[in-house]
Amino acid sequence: MEVQVAPLRAWDDFFPGSDRFALPDLKDISKWNNRVVSNLLYYQTNYLMVAAALVSIVGFLSPLNMVIGGTVVVLVFLGFVWMSHNKDILRKMKKQYPTTFVVAIMLSSYFLISYLGDVMVFMFGITLPLLLMFVHASLRLRNIQNKLQNKMEGIGLKKTPMGIILDALEQQEDSINKLADYISKVKE
């Protein structure tokens, strides 16, 4: 299937007043994870734009360290994904504790970058955009259009860059399996 870029959402939809933001239910991790995944898929182009602006600013100030930092993070991410597909214990950890998996990637990247170069470039150029995305995705309430777009992504009608990343982190399998079960029941 062809990869499609998600549309840029209007700024007033992406970052409106406080009436569209709420703290997640920390007791229901599954629901919180679902909110984060849904928002990451729905606002992915907006997140990319904000991250690109921050990366550009930091990259302009320290280009070599930014290239080194970005390369280390990508290589560590790919290494963790590869290992999680080949080692059952990592696959289970990634499935049960996706946030822990991402934190492990970030900490590993941090230590490698601190060994290779400037840690502040890592903090502001790589970690800050990821943190801003996670905070927004955690706090932003979903709307009907958000849920509809995510269902289309989940059943494979649409494939986006964030969907590919979330598939690598195995964060969409459950919703795809639930939807497939529902479709098979409807057909019967």
User: What order do the SSEs take from the amino end to the carboxyl end, as H and E?
Assistant: HHHHHHHHHH
Q: What average pLDDT do the residues reach?
A: 75
Shape label: globular
> In DSSP terms, counting alpha (H) and pi (I) runs of 4 or more, how many helices?
10
Counted beta strands: 0
Structural class: mainly alpha
**Could you tell me the strand content as a percent range?**
under 5%
Quaternary status: single chain
Measured between the Cα atoms of the first and last residue, the distance is 27 Å
Low-confidence stretches: 175-180
**Roughly what percent helix?**
over 70%
Major β-sheet profile: none
> What is the CA-based Rg, rounded?
18 Å
Secondary structure blueprint with pairings:
Blueprint: H1 11-14, H2 29-42, H3 44-61, H4 63-86, H5 88-96, H6 98-116, H7 119-139, H8 144-154, H9 161-168, H10 173-187
Helix pairs in contact: 2-7, 2-8, 3-4, 3-7, 4-5, 4-6, 4-7, 5-6, 6-7
Care to describe what's here?
InterPro entries: Prenylated_rab_accept_PRA1. This protein has 188 residues and is mainly alpha-helical. The protein has a domain at 29-143. Helix content is 76%, strand content 0%. The chain is built from 10 helices and no strands. Helix 3 (44-61) packs across helix 4. It is globular, with a radius of gyration of 18 Å.
Descriptive keywords:
188 residues; mainly alpha; 10 helices; globular
Compact overview of the structure:
The chain has helices at about 10-15, 30-40, 45-60, 65-85, 90-95, 100-115, 120-140, 145-155, 160-170, 175-185. It is an all-alpha fold.
